[in-house]
Write a structure and sequence with these properties.
7 strands; 25% strand; alpha/beta; two-stranded antiparallel ribbon
């Protein structure tokens, strides 16, 4: 049975490294990589920003497609599929993890120890995902 590997992608260098790690893992053991990007309408001070949902979704799709196309070119034998979802990243990734054998995310540290700390989203996913989680540094 093929392994289903879910990867959280946000366009950052960390998430691209996570997707690359997952593609390499699937190349070695078999399976399918699902690159998931979660988008939402940002709110500041209780107000929605003037950018339309359609424009935000198109930006997210363009970013996801660029990342996935790059990984597909690098790993042509690996089945990499993209999935764009509207919602809150932790809630949506936890829900998607129920259908995965492995969840892969990048670390995203901040502050004086950048690169050594796990970001808040990755930390929440480690604690709440329904499958094992790999945090790629």
């Amino acid at each position: 049975m093929p392994q289903t590997v879910l990867v959280g992608v946000d366009g950052s260098d960390e998430s691209v490294r996570a997707l690359r790690w997952a593609a390499n893992q699937v190349r070695e053991v078999g399976g399918i990589v699902h690159a998931a990007m979660i988008w939402h309408q940002p709110v500041q001070f209780g107000y929605r920003l003037p950018t339309s949902d359609t424009e935000l979704e198109q930006r997210a799709r363009k970013s996801l497609d660029a990342v996935v196309d790059g990984i597909k070119a690098e790993f042509p034998s690996v089945d990499v599929r993209s999935r764009l979802v509207r919602g809150h990243v932790v809630d949506e990734m936890v829900a998607l993890s129920k259908q995965a054998d492995l969840l892969v995310v990048g670390n995203k540290g901040h502050g004086a120890f950048t690169g050594m700390m796990v970001g808040s989203v990755a930390l929440k996913l480690v604690h709440h995902a329904a499958c094992p989680v790999v945090v790629v540094r």
